[in-house]
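Assess this:
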Amino acid sequence: MENGRIMNSSVIQDGFMMKTHDEEEPSKIHNDIITNCLKNREWQHRYRALKRLEADMKDILISSFCDYR
């Protein structure tokens, strides 16, 4: 409370009411977490596929090199 008034946690900027970070809806925060998890899962999938491809190519090169000896 300031000067006998209850302070609102919203901020007025350029004539518009803006919500502070604390007032974000819990569903939005939950959606952000889910979105980050999905992005991470997709990144892991691509990374592991790349590593499998690199290993396969290495095996092919080694086996073809050994065949020529």
